[in-house]
Amino acid sequence: SRLLQLPRELRELIYEHAIIRDTIPIDCAVVKGPGYRKHTGYPYASSPQLHEAYPLSHDVAYRRIWSLPIYDLNVDIQGGTWMEPKRAQMTYQLGATCRRPDYAHCHDKAAIQLLQVCRMVHDEARPLFYKKNIFSFTGRFSVSTALAFIQDLSTTALPLLSSIEIVLTEGNNMRGTAEAHYPPTTRSSDCLVLQHAFHYFTDLCALLASSTVQLRHLYLTIESQSGYGDSQPQALSECIAWEVEKSSSPRPWVASWIQPLLKIQGLESIKVYWISDRPRLRRMSDTLSTMQQSML
């Protein structure tokens, strides 16, 4: 290869140009869904709406597949009903185009094919790919997508994984299927739980906390959707008063799903962007303080 005839310093510059981006987005896609029956009673083997909502860009060869309840995918089949088994087979794939580290607007994906040129190029470029990129899971079902992607990494690639970005969505436990929530609760408890978590959330946290992964940087977006139908408090004092009224236990008030995440320790940095339709300011503060004390 003419590439290998270049000095190592030049090869690394080429590697950086080809495979390092601001983020490497990883999204989920539907491999196979259940059939459905239209309101007329006529059955169909698959739903085009489902595959349009979660399009698969390439055939699955070696990627991990997992299943989700079809109702949690929230796809409108126009009055039809899903047939058994009411689950969709999912996989992960490289997401939409992303920016380079210099924030220039580019429309090219990381040229990961470079890692397949030959053994020597693979061995030289792989540490840069995993250490200098932020692997981003910000689409639908981010938790199970992240888990499947990381589980598929080789034992030599896992220790190189340095930075991940992930979205966690919490909402009222009346939303979605009961098995999608973490922690599991009764419907009557009317509380905030992690949505679309299933058992994958605890599995993901355990994997990231293991000795085989040496994660250094965590970029976390938390989307809180309380779902109350009453009017929103406007002033800071009103938010605090509303929070006190809704909280029966003594402080600290921390998110109910935080414990598995706290197992990830020794991080160099955590960046949290918390979006809420009903700011629980003290709960946010207490949760972030707990994360800082345990994870950094």
Furnish the topology, listing elements before pairings.
Layout: H1 8-19, E1 23-32, E2 36-37, E3 43-44, H2 48-53, E4 66-69, E5 81-82, E6 87-94, H3 119-132, E7 134-137, H4 142-151, E8 163-172, E9 192-194, H5 200-209, E10 217-225, H6 236-246, H7 258-261, E11 269-276, H8 281-295
Parallel strand pairs: 1-7, 7-8, 8-10, 10-11
Antiparallel strand pairs: 1-6, 2-3, 2-5, 4-6, 8-9
Helix pairs in contact: 1-3, 4-5
What does this structure look like?
With 296 residues, this protein is α/β, with parallel strands linked by helices. The chain has two domains: 28-93, no CATH class; 133-295, no CATH class. It is built from eight helices and eleven strands. It has helices spanning 8-19, 48-53, 119-132, 142-151, 200-209, 236-246, 258-261, 281-295, and strands at residues 23-32, 36-37, 43-44, 66-69, 81-82, 87-94, 134-137, 163-172, 192-194, 217-225, 269-276. Strands 1, 4, 6, 7, 8, 9, 10 and 11 form an eight-stranded mixed sheet that branches. The chain has a three-stranded antiparallel sheet with strand order 3-2-5, with no helix packed on it. Helix 4 (142-151) links the parallel strand 7 (134-137) and strand 8 (163-172). The protein starts with 7 loop residues before the first helix and ends with a helix. 27% of the residues are buried.
